[in-house]
Predict the structure of (+)-neomenthol dehydrogenase-like.
Amino acid sequence: MKPRPEFLFQQFHLIMAQFTQRYAIVTGANEGIGLEICGQLACKGIMVVLTARDEKRGLEAVEKLKQSGLSNHVNFHQLDVTDPASIAALADFVKTKFGRLDRLVKNAGIAGAVIDDEALKASSISATELSDSPRIFNVASGRGTLKYIPSEELKEAFRNVDSLTEEKLDEMMTEFLKDFKEGALEIKGWPIHLPAYTVSKVGQITYTRLLAKRHPGCCINSVCPGFVKTDINRNTGTLTVEQGAVTPIVLALLPKGSPSGLFYQQGEVASF
């Protein structure tokens, strides 16, 4: 018995979908900018894995998106970016369910804290290398630009990625923490207003540039969404989450071969 033409047609589209479907992870996505990015990516037909540290809140966020008609493009997986076991579980989930990762939006973070996400960096690179057009970007802040670093020597050290290494960057972060504890920030040329938040964001953008240099096959950038009204700033921002998601979505949809290692703000490349 010959297969029916409509059956062959359906199978053809299923096979083609394997090559055209894109897969994305958004961290810290149960609310605010992360949730909005998930919704907009799903609307573009990208299969999104919404992640959150709190499983209950994450599932509630997924349900909210499903009620908007996005049930076919949203999945949930618990993720604590400070827990290597949690990161490994997410990586295994993506590799098993989808086989590859095309977009990684790193939105998880805590104001004023430096997040140790070495394991997430390693897992994301290995997964995205299976994609033909991988995109990784960090949701950073305009506060992470070098104009907020008083010391010219420190500015040059952060700016020059040709001579900077990941080990040296880690040493600089450790030195900052030491100076912070000893009350020596001003004398050493570190910022004294919002010092932890500022230096963590400078470090984040700098690491993004180093990562782009180490992985030329990936499109790796950082982005400032603007001062968005979120719980983390007690809704004192001036932009809505919809407005804040505009530039991240632009980066997620950049065509193959787009520039890497850049910092974006208000939809355009900005000075670091």
